[in-house]
Amino acid sequence: WINFMLDQVGQLLKSGKFNGVFTTGGYIAGPAIIAARLLGLPVIIHESNALPGKVTRWFGPLCSTLALGFESASKYLPKGEKVWVGTPVRSSFLENQPLELPIPEDVPLIVVVGGSQGAIAVNQLVRQCAPAWFDAGAWIVHLTGEKDPDADSLEHPQYIQMPFYNNMAALLQRANLAISRAGAGTLTELATTQTPAILIPYPYAAEDHQAFNAASFVDAGAALVFRQSELTSQLLTTKVVHLLESPQILEQMAQKAASLAVTDSAERLATLVRQLVI
Fold first, then answer.
1. d(Cα 198, Cα 96) in Å, to the nearest integer?
2. What is the model's pTM?
3. Same domain, 39 and 98
């Protein structure tokens, strides 16, 4: 079946008169990488995580260039031509965006986001901690995802709950602190918006790759990280209140987050493609 897949992909590449292949990895990329190289076509693979996926580790040495979202990923890829380009974000993140939510300008804002699927365990912790954060003067925007059966269980004048929010650029630009999973896309947005964060890596991510992503932010001083299995409501309450009472620490974390941002990532990738393919 491997030969069949390679033959099918090779025929597609030849019939389409492709000049090269750009991939972001995943098991489906393997045959495309091999077929392209057998045809002498350049291949660029973009790896957004700090721990490269298996396809990147296995087939990366065959590629013309490995484009890295995290500079630290390089140590897991001893072979191959590597370049740090970051991970592109939507253009809205690169400009100041108005936040169209009824939040006073002079209050600290905590944004809770569980990633594309939400995070019920994190949601439960946040609702337990919220009263103490309200007492500290904070407002909370809580993006619960669509699968939390208790999403509507907390009501408070300083609390806004919704499954998702379309203008994440505006929300993170306004936030004083984010509580988040540690997917590569979310961390890229946090770095671009210079948002300090408490990260709770998704414990069931493949090869625990979110923990590696989070470690890059912790090492830079841009975030705190806690394992979900070890995090209690008391610990989370205390850490958040301490940060809210320490604006100088939040400012330092914001500056460190900015140091991780590659705001011209899309341009770097486009230049790489032009150099190798066009």
1. 23
2. 0.94
3. no
Domain range for 69: 2-87+263-276
Q: Which residues contact 119 (CB under 8 A, 6 or more apart)?
A: 145, 181, 200, 202
Query: For position 116, what pLDDT does the model report?
Result: 60
Alpha-carbon distance of 128 to 138, in angstroms, equals 15
Query: Is there a contact between 111 and 128 (Cβ–Cβ < 8 Å)?
Result: no
Q: Given this model, what pLDDT does residue 117 score? A: 61
Predicted pLDDT of residue 115: 67
**The tokens 């019920």 sit on which residue?**
120
Give the pair of three-digit tokens for residue 51: 């721990």
Residue 201 backbone dihedrals phi, psi, to 5 degrees: -60, 140
Rounded to 10°, the helix 247-260/209-220 angle is: 120
Domain of residue 106, CATH code: 3.40.50.2000
Phi (first) and psi of residue 156, to 5 degrees:
-165, 145
| Residue whose token pair is 């140590």 | 75
Interatomic CA distance for residues 113 and 7, integer angstroms: 43
Do residues 152 and 222 make contact, with C-beta atoms less than 8 angstroms apart? no
Number of compact structural domains in the chain: 2
Residues of the chain with pLDDT under 70: 1, 115-118
Assess whether 155 and 253 both reside in one domain.
Answer: yes
